[in-house]
Design goal:
The complex is a heterodimer of chains A (about 260) and B (about 290).
Chain A lengths: L2 H31 L18 H8 L1 H34 L5 H9 L6 H15 L5 H22 L3 H12 L4 H30 L2 H6 L6 H8 L6 H29 L1
Helix pairs in contact in A: 2-11, 3-6, 3-8, 3-10, 5-6, 6-8, 7-8, 8-11
Chain B lengths: L2 H41 L3 E3 L2 E3 L5 H8 L1 H4 L1 H30 L2 H12 L6 H12 L4 H8 L13 H25 L3 H9 L4 H29 L3 H6 L7 H9 L5 H22 L8
Antiparallel strand pairs in B: 1-2
Classes of the chains: A mainly alpha (about 260), B mainly alpha (about 290).
């Protein structure tokens, strides 16, 4: 390869990546920038900066309550999904289960079904058995969508290397419970952290299931959805920016946990 | 008790022990996922007459859907939007994934990839709203077009099916970048050297070696894009406006405004049938394994 075509190569690569970043971050940048806008409509030209809209968000009782609800549903569904996913992964990785392939497929299946259908199914089923619309119903739905991911993440962290260490511990006289507590859990801790972070984000951002299955107490995306009816509004920008920051934090935790796992 | 029987017993006990660990997860999935799907299937056979719910089974909802042109039109519209989204997302994602996998130095690769897919993990309601800001008549895109003299009046960009596709592509190009990157980064660089040694040009190397070997990533990304896009309610509702109803919007309309749960259930099953067909098509190319 000649020098000139190598230079051309680098220029084209930089151009592709640069354009991609502009496209990916254009809406995010507009959202964040105009959350500091001094004016009623979050459109150019930009004036400011001001923190007024963040003040409005913090004074908005509905938004604050919804933030608490979202955190509760997110944490609860992430913990339950990760616990169930971890146990299932342990069962399939460490025991020869008859029909394991089919059963594992069943656990992954919810990934392929639209959230809308999962939400409607739960709504109709819950109303048939008399369970009212509530944050509990929403959390149950979020465990359904999070469980396949939690299972897949934990399953990937229980390979032959980990199994060998568990056997070694058993040979050295450790009881089943000791092996579980002293070997299995520490070895899979990064995967558990990754699963918790990912499940929390998915629940935190999920709208349709929450919209269908909640009534008085709602989650953050549902409140933001109702704010959209007033059109473009810097307060929505500010709320959206805060939502984005929380997801970002969870993803960074996920990323760090993944890195520790591969290290 | 013979030796074979003992072995079978041990194996059975082993299987039950594994099942005991998987039990809670399987139970949860059965109770809160499989059962509700069954409930939807049953409800789709009920029907509403006036304000009354008729619970003897019939295919009336399906007959109404396939017989009513206005209702039925949601299906081809959804297929068309999802198909456009899939093709454009793959076309946009491929060069990005290629540059990330092949051109970016190893030290920066992980960071560059994470940066390229970071907004994927943000709220889809917020993401769609953000595009409204960009596409508004006084927004950034129209501002740029006016200043460049490309248009004399702001274009109507938001609340169109084009805006829906754009919002989708923004989201799904990140997903496709991930899947295509995963198959490209696994490619043995020696294969390309071998092709070059055998006298292949760069184009030939790409079309004969790199592209075919990256097809599993392309197919996986395309499949996920298609099935998630065709089932999404939020993006078309926020960006597409209410002019053209897609399948998920039709389902929500029946659920909410009309309160016709049996019809919404029937439409949900139509949507699931479409997704199943897409899966059967895709599974010829990729094996979807846990």
């Amino acid at each position: 390869v000649t020098g000139r075509s190598r230079t051309l190569d680098i220029v084209v690569a930089a151009l592709v990546l640069g354009l991609a970043y502009v496209f990916i971050y254009l809406p995010v940048a507009s959202l964040v920038l105009f959350s500091f806008h001094e004016g009623k409509i979050p459109l150019p030209p930009f004036r400011g900066p001001t923190l007024d809209w963040y003040g409005r968000v913090l004074a908005n009782g509905k938004l604050v309550a919804a933030t608490g609800n979202s955190a509760l549903v997110g944490a609860g569904s992430a913990i339950i999904a990760t616990a169930l996913g971890f146990l299932a992964a342990y069962g399939f990785a460490r025991h020869r289960v008859r029909g394991a392939r089919g059963l594992e497929l069943v656990l992954i299946l919810p990934l392929t079904v639209s959230y809308l259908i999962i939400g409607i199914g739960l709504l109709v089923t819950f109303s048939a058995v008399g369970l009212p619309k509530s944050l509990l119903a929403v959390a149950i739905g979020h465990v359904v969508i999070n469980l396949p991911l939690a299972f897949a993440i934990c399953r990937a962290a229980m390979g032959e290397r980990e199994a060998r260490l568990e056997r070694a511990a058993r040979d050295l006289g450790a009881s089943e419970w000791q092996v579980f507590r002293r070997i299995t859990i520490p070895l899979t801790a990064p995967a558990l952290a990754a699963s918790l972070a990912l499940c929390f984000t998915l629940s935190w951002d999920e709208f349709v299931i929450a919209f269908l299955n909640s009534s008085f107490d709602v989650t953050l995306p549902v409140v933001i959805w109702s704010m959209l009816r007033t059109g473009l509004n810097p307060e929505t920008n500010a709320a959206g920016t805060l939502v984005f920051l929380v997801s970002l934090t969870a993803v960074v935790i996920f990323e760090l946990a993944q890195r520790r796992r591969s290290a | 008790v013979g030796k074979g029987d003992g072995e079978a017993l041990v194996r059975r006990r082993e299987s039950w022990r594994g099942l005991a660990y998987a039990g809670p997860a399987l139970g949860w999935t059965a109770l809160f996922f499989l059962l509700p799907l069954g409930v939807i299937a049953v409800w789709s056979l009920y029907r509403r007459e006036g304000t009354k719910l008729v619970t003897d089974w019939s295919l009336a909802n399906y007959e109404r859907f396939f017989g009513d042109a206005a209702l039925l039109s949601a299906l081809p519209k959804s297929l068309w939007i999802a198909a456009q989204t899939t093709v454009v997302s793959v076309l946009v994602a491929y060069p990005v994934a290629y540059v990330l996998a092949v051109k970016v130095p190893a030290r920066w690769q992980r960071l560059a990839l994470v940066l390229a897919v970071l907004p994927f993990w943000t709220s889809y309601v917020v993401r769609s709203y953000s595009w409204l800001l960009v596409l508004a008549p006084d927004g950034i895109v129209n501002g740029a077009l006016l200043r460049l003299g490309l248009v004399s009046e702001p274009l109507k960009l938001s609340f169109t099916s084009g805006a829906t596709v754009l919002g989708f592509v923004h989201f799904f190009m990140m997903l496709c970048t991930l899947t295509i990157f995963a198959s490209l980064v696994r490619l043995d660089p020696r294969l390309k050297l071998a092709a070059a040694d055998l006298g292949a040009s760069r184009w030939q190397t790409f079309w004969r070696v790199t592209w075919p070997l990256s097809l599993p990533g392309v197919a996986a990304g395309a499949f996920l894009t298609f099935v998630i896009a065709i089932g999404d309610y939020v993006t078309p509702q926020i960006l597409g406006g209410n002019m053209e109803m897609l399948l998920p919007q039709a389902i929500m309309f029946q659920m909410g405004r009309r309160g016709d749960i049996p019809m919404a259930a029937a439409l949900s099953l139509v949507l699931m049938a479409v997704i199943t067909v897409a899966y059967l098509v895709a599974s010829r190319r990729v094996r979807v394994t846990p």
